[in-house]
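REQUEST ID: PR-0412
SUBMITTED BY: lab tech R.K.
PRIORITY: routine
TASK: structure prediction, single protein chain
INPUT:
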Amino acid sequence: LGSAIAFGVCIVTLISGFAGAFQQNLAANIAQMNAVHIFIEGVEKTESGKSFEVIRDDELFTQVLAESNIKYETVSRRSWADGSIVFNGKRTAQGIYGVNFATEPLLQDRIKLKEGSWDRIEEPGMLVLNEGIVKKMKLELNDKVQFELRTVTGQKNFGDFTLVGISQDMGMFSSMIAYTNQKYLNILLDLGPDEYEFFTVMLDDMSRAEAETAKLAQ
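STATUS: complete
OUTPUT:
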């Protein structure tokens, strides 16, 4: 009986360890893809009362971050579009990050490419897609796709993109994210060239995210 109990406890411990490691790896992958442990969203309202995301001036954010003495690796300012990629009559849901690559040099090290390169990503309309979406849509490098989206205030819009990079699958959720030049995506979202939607902070220790977020909120 004692041996059976010990064996049972051992199995439970092993399962808990595997589950914990999986959860930590998943959280780390999501943080790497999104460059975020702390996430700040800017919201405005139209005259009709409809809310939409935009940050026009982040002086307050940067001041509070400096005064908090939080240890972090990077700060990112990104735009985001939810929409659909259309190619040869096929359609699939896709989210695209608009990134200022000059201020996020580490992104190209975090997101490994299976094919293509980041060399042209700062040109308007260049796109890096996950390999799962590429296979699903039967795309190849330099194929041109259309992206259907809505502006930040809800109007339908379309943009043309060229596939210049295919990112490696990083597990769950990685296929949901693609990357492009921020200023081009801002045009499609009806944002100004220096405006964006999300201010994010990548800490040097993910375990401190909750405590450091509380510091900023005070």
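NOTES: Residues 1-31 have pLDDT under 50 and may be disordered.
REVIEWED BY: pending
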